[in-house]
Structure formats: structure tokens, C-alpha cells
Amino acid sequence: MAQPIEGILETALYATDLDAAEAFYGNVLGLEKIARLGNRHVFFRCGPGVLLIFNPEETMKPPAPDSLQVPPHGTTGKGHACFRVSGDNLDTMAAKLKSAGVAIESEVHWPQGGRSIYFRDPDGNSLECAEAKIWGMG
């Protein structure tokens, strides 16, 4: 039987300051904003998927009866996401982050090949840009 899951469609991170998150992911990382709903969420196009940034204080509330019935969700603490970046563009991304005042916490050269850089968004989420070959993908 074929595997019915084709991949990850969306990834969620949580941030209490959506203005700072919107500026960081849009202006610093260069992601295309899809939508923003007040202080609840801001969504970005990210390659073939979508990056969802939710305010956990808002998404923990039950939906209004006349809105989409998405169950309450959220988390506390800092999350992690890794962005796929080609080896040729990894240094460009690191330079872009540094010029925006974003510190590179770590650069890892993985034993199986490939490398990645780690940094934080304004809310403290751990972010990574990495070559796909760290997971054996081309």
C-alpha cells in the first residue's frame, strides 16, 4: 500500500509579537506574506509549503460560532523550524542575517555532509537554514 502522506504542507511557530514576526519573516528572511488576521496569525509562503506564525494567546481561544471551526491550539516555549537552502545560498543567507543584526548562534558541518546555520527570530524560536543533504536528500 502506498504511503498516503506526501509531505508537510504547513509548519507552525508561535510568537506573541506578530508585528516583529511579520517584519522578521517578511523583510529579513524575504518570505512572501499570504495573510494576516489581526493579532491572531500571520502566514507566509515558504517554498512549496506554508509557514504559520500564531499568537498562542489567541489560538488557545475557541473559535467563534460563525468562523472556521479550527480547534484551539498553541504551545508555550520556543519552537524550531529549518529552512531548506542550497549550499550556494547558505553564505548569502548568513550575510543577510548578519547585516540585519541577527546573530548566527552556530554553524554545523554535519558528518553525513552538508551544513547548517542556527539563529533566532524576535520571539526566540530556534531557526535553521540547512542544505537538504543533511537528511540525505538532494
Please describe the structure with a list of short key phrases separated by commas or semicolons:
138 residues; four-stranded mixed beta sheet; 2 domains; 2,3-Dihydroxybiphenyl 1,2-Dioxygenase, domain 1; alpha/beta; globular; 20% helix
Structure write-up:
- With 138 residues, the protein is of the alpha/beta class.
- It has two domains: 9-63, 2,3-Dihydroxybiphenyl 1,2-Dioxygenase, domain 1, CATH 3.10.180.10; 78-138, Roll (2,3-Dihydroxybiphenyl 1,2-Dioxygenase, domain 1), CATH 3.10.180.10.
- The protein contains three helices and eight strands; from the N terminus they run βαβββαβαβββ.
- It has helices at residues 18-28, 56-59, 87-99; strands at residues 10-14, 32-37, 41-46, 49-54, 80-84, 106-109, 115-120, 126-130.
- The strands form two sheets. Strands 1-4-3-2 form a four-stranded mixed beta sheet. Strands 5-8-7-6 form a four-stranded mixed beta sheet.
- The radius of gyration is 16 Å and the shape is globular.
- The relative contact order is 0.18.
- The mean pLDDT is 93.
Total DSSP E strands: 8
Structural class: alpha/beta
- The DSSP helix count reads 3
CATH level-4 homologous superfamily of the largest domain: 2,3-Dihydroxybiphenyl 1,2-Dioxygenase, domain 1
Order of helices and strands: EHEEEHEHEEE
CATH structural class of the largest domain: Alpha Beta
Estimate nothing, just give the exact number of structural domains: 2
Kindly state the mean pLDDT as a whole number? 93
Low-confidence stretches: none
Radius of gyration: 16 Å
Biggest sheet strand order reads: 1-4-3-2
What would the principal axes of the Cα set say about the shape?
globular
CATH topology of the largest domain: 2,3-Dihydroxybiphenyl 1,2-Dioxygenase, domain 1
Strand content: 25-35%
Q: Helix share of residues? A: 10-25%
Determine the oligomeric state from the structure: single chain
Quote the distance from N terminus to C terminus.
25 Å
From the coordinates shown, what is the CATH architecture of the largest domain? Answer: Roll
Q: Can you summarize the main beta sheet?
A: 4 strands, mixed
